[in-house]
Design a protein that fits this description.
The protein contains 8 helices and 6 strands. The protein is an alpha/beta fold. The protein has a single domain, classed as 3-Layer(aba) Sandwich (Uracil-DNA Glycosylase, subunit E), CATH 3.40.470. A hairpin with a 2-residue loop joins strand 5 and strand 6. It is globular.
């Protein structure tokens, strides 16, 4: 049997090579050529983003999709934008990340007992993937869920991630429960997993104070407690 690391690596390679969604391929590559003025000197990643982190993770973090000038630029989930800085600060504070900022792929950041992924792997126009695009991507999440056999706690960042995580768990035959109601700080069970909900650390949510650093930090401190309890 292949190792968990090897099978995750295989999945990551397939994600990077994926061209199933013409609209997303066109958009991500257009953004990578036109760039944002602040990053005009940088070479954009411009491809789908694989999940990344510790193959022996006990915690899984699920987001919506890469940001056009964040992950689509840097090539790593939640890296190079303010959403990522919020997320990694909270992860670091709970002992799941080696540093509180994510700037680029070679910045030395490590995840400790955690793995980060998303429902959709390409930056979508307007941050709104279509149903067909979601369905094309969901098998990658299903494969990750099956390979990350030690995960017992999952943080869903936002309503979209929450609903489609539940869909993926059922499709993977890892849970049979109906989708729980989403609300920030909510805690529910699906199959062997405890699902923790958080508002997504988007600038729309953080700038309006719908989500504060303390609120996000509390979710990951709760995740830490649950992970330690399961160990």
């Amino acid at each position: 049997m292949r190792s968990t690391r090897a099978t995750l690596a295989d999945c990551q390679k397939r994600v990077i090579a994926c061209r199933l969604c013409p609209r997303l391929v066109k958009w991500r590559e257009k953004v990578a050529v036109e760039k944002r003025r602040a990053f005009a000197h940088e070479e954009y990643w411009g491809k789908p983003l694989p999940g990344w982190g510790d193959p022996k993770a006990r915690l899984l973090v699920v987001g919506l999709a890469p940001a056009a000038h964040g992950g689509n630029r840097t090539g790593r989930m939640f890296t190079g934008d303010e959403s990522g800085n919020w997320l990694y600060r909270a992860l670091c504070g709970a002992g799941f990340a080696s540093q509180p900022e994510a700037i680029r792929r070679d910045d030395g950041l490590r995840l400790i007992g955690a793995y980060i992924t998303a429902i959709v792997r390409c930056a979508p126009p307007g941050n709104k993937p279509t149903t067909a695009e979601r369905d094309n991507c969901l098998p990658y999440l299903i494969e990750e869920l099956r390979r990350l056999s030690r995960v017992r706690v999952i943080v869903a960042l936002g309503h979209y991630a929450h609903d489609n995580l539940a869909r993926a768990l059922r499709q993977a035959d890892l849970a049979t429960e109906k989708t729980p109601t989403f609300s920030h700080g909510a805690e529910s069970r699906m199959g062997p997993y405890t699902i923790l909900d958080s508002y997504h650390p988007s600038q729309q949510n953080t700038n309006t104070h719908l989500l504060t650093r303390d609120m996000l930090g509390a979710v990951f401190q709760r995740a830490r407690g649950l992970v330690d309890q399961e160990s």
